[in-house]
Every structure is written in C-alpha cells, then in structure tokens.
From TrEMBL:
GO terms for molecular function: actin filament binding; protein-macromolecule adaptor activity. Keywords: Actin-binding, Cytoplasm. It is found in: Cytoplasm. It comes from the Eukaryota. This is Fascin actin-bundling protein 1. InterPro entries: Actin-crosslinking (IPR008999), Fascin-like_dom (IPR022768). It holds the Pfam family Fascin. The keyword RNA-binding does not apply. It comes from Chelydra serpentina.
Amino acid sequence: MADSAVPPSLPCGFINAANRYLSAEPFRFQVVATGSALRLRQVWMLRFVPSQGAGAAGQAQESGQRLHLLSSLQRFLAADPNGKVTCDQESPGPGALFLLRQYPDGKVCKLHPPELPIAPHSRHLL
C-alpha cells in the first residue's frame, strides 16, 4: 500500500527550444540549459501537489496540475514574477509552485508559475 502522506512524483528531463536539457548546477545552485544528453543533473522530480477543498477536482482539470520541481541536488526550482529562475530553495517556497498544462492535441506541455499569464514571454517557458 502506498503512503498517502508522500505526494506522487515522477522523474523527467526538460528540453528547451534549442534542444538543450535544463540542468541544476551545484555552483550557486544555478539553472542552465546546456546539456546535450540526459545526465543525472538534468533529471528533475515532478512532485504533484494535491488539490485542496471542495470542487478542487474540477478546478484542477481546468487550470492544470499543480506541482513542485525538485532537482537532483534536492533543491526546488522557483521563478519570480520577473521570470528569474533559481534552484536554491531547500523547501518549496514562494514561486516554487508551477502548473502543468496540456494542450488539446495532447502532445505539448509547458510549465509556468500560476501568477504568470497563460501565454508568457518565451523566457518563462520550460
């Protein structure tokens, strides 16, 4: 039986438009997109955040799945309202909550902070 206290999670890698993997670097916990092959530093853990409250299931379907992104360095990815991305938080804090949206064709997904508009500038796309 699965432990209900542990949120479901999924390992994955992210590729940008230039076909480079998003990496978590140990130096100052920077985030870069330079990897041409999937390595340990490019593996991220999607930690799904359960919906809370009545009617949450319908809201989750409409707005997307809420999640946190945990790097191989055990630090959480976060973004501020200006689009600056960091990976230095040991626990999920402000800006570490993202939405996973799936397009109607089922092929393309993107991640973005919930407070950003639906079609943000390309620097906000992961």
